[in-house]
Amino acid sequence: MDQFLDAAANQNHPLRILSDFLKTEESVETAKRYNESRFVGYVLEIGYDEITIITCDPFKVNVGGIPRNSLLIMVPDSFEQNGKSIPLHFTLLRVLDSAPTPLSKEVQQTYFELQKKSMPELDIFTQSELQWGALKTKVLGMFYPHPTQLDTIEFSGDLNNYVSAHKYKIYSPDDKLLDLVSNELVPKENRFAIGKLRLTENRLPLPGKKLPDVDIFLSTNDFKGCRTAMFGKTRLGKSNVVKLIVQSLLETTRDTRNVGQLIFDINGEYANDNPQDDNLSIRGAYPDRCTVYALTPKTNTPSQPLKLNFYHTPFSSKQVLNTLIRQSGRSGSDYVDAFISVDIPDFSEVNAIPNNRMNEKIRAIRKIQYYFALLHKCQFACDENTVRNSIPSANSVRGFNPGFSDALRNAAYSAFQLQVPQAPNSLDTLQRELEVIHRFKKANPADPNLRSGSGNPIFDQEDNALLEMLEPNPGRSGFSILLRFRSYHDHRAGDYTANILHLLDEGQTVILDLGNADEILMTYFSRQLSEAVFYHQTDKFTNNQLGNHFIQLYFEEAHNLFGYNDNSDETRIYRRFAKEGAKYHIGMVYSTQSPSTINSDLLAQTENFFVAHLASQEDVNKLAKVNIAYESIKNDILQAKTPGYMRMLTRSHRFVVSMQAKKFTPPSNTNK
Known about the structure:
Elements: H1 2-9, H2 16-30, E1 39-46, E2 50-56, H3 57-62, E3 71-76, E4 80-81, E5 84-85, E6 90-99, H4 104-117, H5 124-130, E7 132-145, E8 153-156, E9 168-171, H6 175-183, E10 191-197, E11 215-219, E12 227-231, H7 238-252, E13 259-265, H8 282-285, E14 290-294, E15 304-305, H9 314-327, H10 334-340, H11 347-351, H12 358-377, H13 384-390, H14 406-415, H15 427-443, H16 461-470, H17 494-505, E16 509-513, H18 519-542, E17 550-555, H19 572-580, E18 586-592, H20 600-605, E19 608-611, H21 617-626, H22 634-639, E20 645-649, E21 657-661
Parallel strand pairs: 12-18, 12-19, 13-16, 13-17, 14-15, 14-16, 17-18
Antiparallel strand pairs: 1-2, 1-9, 2-7, 3-6, 3-9, 4-5, 6-7, 7-8, 10-11, 10-21, 19-20, 20-21
Helix pairs in contact: 10-16, 12-15, 12-16, 14-15, 15-16
């Protein structure tokens, strides 16, 4: 009766699978169908961290082989102790390597003697002795009934107790048990199949034996507001797994639309289909859920223009211009290189200069004014009122007025027999005044009006480089070099940020097609939009409007954005994602070839890992240092190079799951 009641109570419990497995093993042993047995051997030496097991060749063959990295389970010899039943449970082990036995030297001696005598065959007694060996295994933890929740499993990363080695048996789990250990800890909510269990790279089956056929699931709840890393050498499937994660969030939020995704697509593979490689893009698979912004629109990909407002952030836009000039092959001459070397300060940088350094502040504001006059001459359109109000002020230097002395202005205009106009109040009048004064300066370099009251030149080398581009000497192209770059500018470009944030709030996936863009442009857009997302989510958090809405960011070649030991202001936003992203419902997925190239702050805060082949001992050591779960499979990561073969660890997984990621397919083919 007790057994009947116990069986009834555990009818729906996940560990019923273990009970059925052990009953099957008992019946197989009774019927002497040993080739169907999953029994592997016995415990030779037991500890809290490692367990050495003894096994033999027939046991290994019966279970289809026991390769390194495969999983085994350890169960008590009996679940009856002192007339009382103990709860069903098992210990999960990972096979690490072979281990010596007490007879290892004798076995080696026997082999040596046999080979020396060239014996063609072993007698049955010797063969029986030599087929035994030992394996060293890592204790991953224990599965047992949850103490307070019915029909639920709990997992612990340690052992509550162990007794004498002879009290245990070792089995190779079947597919149902492998499914239990791989997926039972994953929340049932928002599940998505990402691949198949693949314990080893080698997939050669033993005769008459099948390889495991177990689906591996993840829950998209584990990615919302979390950091996810993709590590591995190029062409090993990182981008495919990123697509699967994007797809999983699209599929599991089809009704709620509570996750917006922003993908910085530096190769154009998420925005554009590539039929030659049978490579379908995210946009191609989900055209109704995706919006593409492109620097260079593609013929077959509907997209919105991704433009810069060169007046919005002077420092960044000047860096972009520098890159475009170099790419066009126009650098190399002295005056162009001098212009490239000029750094234009941002407004915030100027405002940070204290008033007791007034001369420094005035020089910084004038540089911005000279730069804006140059953009205006190159016909970079703008809303003058907005630009005028954005420029900091200091004394008489404000808006478009550089505040030159009356003496200098009178001398410059009089030299060309021109009437002295009012102080500049538009980009047109600023441009004309700078052209007049620059011509005067070149014609009268020693004029005392070109020096300040302290005797220093009013125009330093960087000022001269800007003015020479604005009003070049005869025979020089000057400002005309910049005319071709107007296609990158839009004075309404600030609106794209607001539009993207609106789309993200609606649960859309926004893809920034940055294919063929220079690293400077990629860095600019990544940082600018990352900051916009962060402050947008911060504002919602402050006003208690976050709710259950999340934003997920995706970065390729992440080492270019937040490299190791890069603590500069330019990468500060990514460090804030690492430390504060969860609070503001911001998650990020970043891909790179090497964990040792990623900022340590971000690595330390990363919860989810997908690791393909790494070729460097330094990289696997770094990975194991960041997450100890990878310590026992470092050699496997170094040796296995199959594309799509990943070692996955998410918030729900307490140990690394080795799996073969499925190929990204459109929704209609997802279940094929």
